[in-house]
Specification:
single chain; 390 residues; mainly beta; six-stranded mixed beta sheet; globular
Length: 390
């Protein structure tokens, strides 16, 4: 049996965006357990997203390797199990998945290829996290964690050992960060800007993201990401907009606004950009992930709030990767070919990290961001009484 999620769609949105309504998977929870693959968008549109699995801790990564009777470091496997409590930030780099736990004040590192699930070793002493929320991993393997209580960006080396903190003297509340070879870009919720800090000296180089006479700047920003071309994307809960900047701080473009229609946001949080330029935005109010093209045009969304497989419950962080596709392909329907993998953190519900695959069915001709027939999709009929959960 193949499960194709329909969803709750606002009547207002159907009027404003009749064509988009035909493409979009909704966000309604299902009361009964589902069997078979879970796909988005709903039939009769070609499937583009499949829910693959949930990750709640070490048992979901290392169980094939350890079993239940293997002794690890002198302890029974049950004694060293690590469970994720309340995740927020997430990123993937060099085949590893990094998850920030805001309750346990931990960073977990999962490696599906090596079947390992460990805590960041340097989270002790001077490197002890007090309220980590988001994370970035540089190309050189160094790890950077935004800690809102310490008011610093904490840096750990490739082995996970603490190196130093950045920005303690800047009176900021860092809620996220990205890094390049030269700088740390710390998202400051308190001052609605981005602090650009030199990795070499630790000094503040400049601040970017403020409003100008002609452009709206950051407004209660929560998350940011850096794409492969060097552009920075920031989600803003104050304005409901996604703002795109270059690394010199110029505002290039923006899209979205506060609202409950398509392309609008209730509480935008995590954001990611894949290699094809698709932009993924997590919304804790609509409890879904909206996907846009590089021009800010809505392509589709997926999620389904509820306590069943494939659902999203207070989604916070999102990231994508093409690494370890062979592993995740084994979790997909045999006829569904993965193009990349999407990870979403949930702050509530039975699944803490939901894993989805973006792809297409075998024999389906892919046109742009959709499959064959996407130019003239057919409508999935939502119930008149359905509305999006907030």
């Amino acid at each position: 049996m193949v499960v194709r999620r329909t969803g709750r769609i606002h009547g207002k949105a159907l009027v404003m965006f009749p064509l988009l309504a035909l493409l979009l998977a909704g966000c309604a929870g299902q009361k009964k357990a589902q069997t078979g693959p879970i796909f988005f968008p709903p039939e009769p549109n070609p499937p583009r997203i499949q829910y693959l699995k949930g990750i709640n801790g070490s048992k979901d990564i290392v169980k094939e390797k350890l079993g239940f009777s293997v002794v690890s470091l002198g302890k029974e496997e049950e004694d060293v199990v690590k469970n994720i409590a309340k995740p927020y930030g997430i990123t993937a780099e060099k085949g590893k998945l990094y998850v920030v736990d805001t309750i346990l004040n931990e960073v977990y590192i999962a490696d599906v290829a090596a079947q390992s699930f460990v805590s960041l070793p340097g989270n002790k002493g001077q490197g002890k996290m007090k309220k980590p929320i988001n994370i970035a991993v540089a190309k050189d393997g160094n790890v950077f964690v935004a800690d809102t209580f310490r008011k610093e960006i904490l840096m750990y080396d490739v082995n996970g050992n603490f190196v130093q903190g950045f920005g303690k003297d800047l009176d900021m509340k860092p809620v996220d960060c990205v890094v390049d070879d030269e700088n740390i870009y710390a998202l400051d919720f308190s001052h609605n800007d981005i602090k650009v800090i030199s990795r070499a000296t630790g000094e503040l180089a400049r601040t970017i993201g403020k409003s100008t006479e002609t452009e709206q700047g950051l407004s209660m920003p929560t998350n940011l990401t850096l794409d492969s071309k060097g552009f920075i994307y920031v989600t803003n809960t104050g304005s409901g907009r996604v703002i795109k900047l270059d690394r010199d701080g110029h505002i290039v473009s923006s899209f979205g606004k506060m609202g409950d229609a398509f392309s609008e946001f209730g509480r935008p949080r995590g954001i990611a950009v894949d290699d094809a330029g698709r932009i993924y935005v997590a919304d804790a109010s609509h409890q879904n992930i909206q996907i846009f093209n590089d021009k800010g045009r809505l392509l589709m969304f997926f999620g389904d709030p509820g306590l069943v497989e494939g659902s999203l419950n207070l989604p916070a962080g999102v990231t994508t990767t093409k690494e370890n596709l062979e592993y995740y392909q084994k979790l997909a329907d045999p006829n569904f070919v993965l193009e990349n993998v999407i990870f979403v953190t949930n702050q509530f519900g039975p699944v803490k990290v939901a894993v989805y695959g973006l792809g297409h069915m075998k024999g389906q001709k892919v046109i742009g961001n959709y499959g064959e027939g996407a130019e003239q999709p057919k409508k999935a009929a939502p119930k008149a009484s359905e509305t999006s959960q907030k």
